[in-house]
Write a structure and sequence with these properties.
Layout lengths: L7 H28 L24 H25 L14
């Protein structure tokens, strides 16, 4: 392919070749991602549970909601405190009222 005599058909050939290369790479990546399904995973059931015991009897679903609520409370408190204090804000504890 000569750049001084580059025709429309040469451009079409180059475009088709480039699209085929990209398509082949995408197919290879698809097979690699599919192969991840067959790799061995570490089983979480075999790991010992080292969490401290709960004081209240809650299900895991309720506990996840409480953790999310605590995070929202921390972020809200730090945002409100940052408006009044010009330095860094550190939350030391969270206590539910009500």
């Amino acid at each position: 392919m000569d750049l001084t005599n580059f025709t429309l058909m040469d451009g079409v050939e180059l475009s088709i070749f480039a699209m085929l290369v990209v398509f082949i790479i995408l197919v290879i990546l698809q097979f690699i991602v599919y192969a991840f399904k067959f790799l061995p995973r570490e089983l979480k059931e075999q790991a010992p549970d080292v969490r401290p015991p709960h004081h209240r009897h809650q299900t895991e679903k309720e506990n996840d909601g409480d953790e999310e609520d605590e995070m929202v409370a921390m972020l809200t408190a730090s945002a409100l405190a940052k408006e009044e204090i010009k330095g860094n804000v550190r939350i030391k504890s969270i206590k539910r009222i009500g």
